[in-house]
Amino acid sequence: MTGCRVVAIGGSAGSIPVVTALLQALPTSFPFAVFVVLHRLKNVTSSMDTILTSKGRGLVIGEPDDKEAIVAHRVYLAPQNYHLLIEADRTISLDYSEPVHYSRPSIDVTFESIAMAYAGSAVAILLSGANQDGADGLLAIVRQGGVAIVQDPATAEYPVMPQAAINRNKNAVVLTPEHIASFLHTLND
Amino acid sequence: MTVPIYISAEDLEEVVHLVRRQYGYDFGDYARASLQRRVIRCMQKAGCLTAFELKYQLTNDERFFAWFIESLTVNVTEMFRDPAFYKELRNTVLPKLASYPILKIWHAGCSTGEEVFSMAILLHEAGLLNRTRLYATDLNPANLERARQGIVPLQNMKEYTSNYIQSGGTNDFSSYYTARYENAIIHKEYRKNIVFATHNLATDQVFNEFQLVCCRNVLIYFNRELQNRVMTLFSNSLAPLGYLALGMKESLLFSEARDQFDVVSPVVRIYRSKT
Ligand SMILES: C[S@@+](CC[C@H](N)C(=O)[O-])C[C@H]1O[C@@H](n2cnc3c(N)ncnc32)[C@H](O)[C@@H]1O
């Protein structure tokens, strides 16, 4: 694929090992921004960004502030207890509205917003999880001409979420974590 | 399955324009990504399948408009949300404020009151409540109506109690409210110094001088231009060396007003006016 500007990764229960593996598999330089949306507990101090950073081999990983400008070669982790949205001018807006699929941040919300802002230059990847979040978001990505990838449910610790996404999206590409990792390399044009 | 409802960027601008012209509410400088989601949500709830239907209803039905405004704003809130923030208030800010004979605090965008009730409890525990006047304002009259009743859903109290304890609270949290059916009613003595009033940050002016302004999770709905204007409004509303508290992911760094403030707590986003 050429012209990829953004890769969005959504995961829930059982997805952390895959997320870390994918971040480690990123090429040393990449011309796109990466968004990671994980279902997490709220009102507890979270060290998710430090955990991911320590495994990410010098990657810049952080929770963005509201209205931060998006730059390539950076990994943005959706902060706990906020939805993460993208503005047309490629800045980040956070939103404290109702949870979607009992989740805030919700994967659907970020994927749908990325679909609007990036259209055909977006790749969205949905990983292991135990609910239905992400399926609608992937649909929006595909409708706007982006690429939708789903972790093969047979390889997922919790297959419900990837399976729900596959049922909803005939155009989703189903891949094992290893194949997703190699796909990320083809984005580095 | 629900029919996907969509509103284009152009139609969204027309709705914003209509609402401003006909009703005087200005959403022109709201961040578009969330505004668009909210408008779509309103259309779904109201059964408007197209932007045309929405505009038609807004133009011809004032009651529909009142409902629209109430549903458009994001009203979600919590008591003692972000316990680390309240802990910092307890340990750092309130001891400094204790030297004032009379305190005035402004909660801008107070929603249904949970945040200002939490503040009243902190002030009570610091022995400051009796000399404090709390001004809690919001754009949405329905939120204020609810806030005035001092009612919080009882099912949330378990979580709020845990937040309260994490914030350093050592009292019995249930001593602050009475449970009645599905509701927890915050005792009147903790609410008597609170004044609830409508105030639109996008269009209204400075109305008093405060030692502390709390505006948490409201600026995220604004674009940078409006954020800058509101920051100037806050700066002009603060007493010398007054405090400004923002949400955990709201930063003064992007704002033109940053030079006028010192950072008190970078993590929980508490700032202090230099002058
Ligand atoms: C997400 S709530 C935040 C409540 C509380 N401060 C908290 O952090 O839990 C946002 C509130 O801002 C209010 N709001 C939105 N635009 C506003 C404006 N222009 N002026 C005043 N309040 C506004 C909404 O009505 C809503 O009650």
From TrEMBL, chain A:
Active site: S12, H39, D133
Transmembrane stretches, start-end: 16-38
GO molecular function per UniProt: phosphorelay response regulator activity; protein-glutamate methylesterase activity
EC nos: 3.1.1.61
The keyword Hydrolase is assigned to this record: yes
Top-level EC class: hydrolase
Any one GO cellular component localisation term in the record: cytoplasm
SUPFAM superfamilies on file: Methylesterase CheB, C-terminal domain
Keyword Chaperone carried by entry: no
Reaction catalysed by this enzyme: [protein]-L-glutamate 5-O-methyl ester + H2O = L-glutamyl-[protein] + methanol + H(+)
The organism's place on the tree of life at top rank: Bacteria
Alphabetical GO biological process terms: chemotaxis
Domain CheB-type methylesterase: residue ranges: 1-189
UniProtKB keywords: Chemotaxis, Hydrolase, Membrane, Transmembrane, Transmembrane helix
Protein name (Swiss-Prot/TrEMBL): protein-glutamate methylesterase
Lineage: Bacteria, Pseudomonadati, Bacteroidota, Cytophagia, Cytophagales
UniProtKB/TrEMBL annotation, chain B:
MF-aspect GO terms: S-adenosylmethionine-dependent methyltransferase activity
SUPFAM superfamilies to which the protein is assigned, alphabetical: Chemotaxis receptor methyltransferase CheR, N-terminal domain (SSF47757), S-adenosyl-L-methionine-dependent methyltransferases (SSF53335)
Keywords: Methyltransferase, Transferase
Domain CheR-type methyltransferase: 1-274
Signal peptide region: none
Lineage: superkingdom: Bacteria
InterPro entries per record: Bact_Chemotaxis_MeTrfase (IPR050903), CheR_C (IPR022642), CheR_MeTrfase (IPR000780), CheR_N (IPR022641), SAM-dependent_MTases_sf (IPR029063)
Gene Ontology biological process terms, A to Z: methylation
Listed name of the protein: Protein-glutamate O-methyltransferase CheR
Species annotation: Larkinella punicea
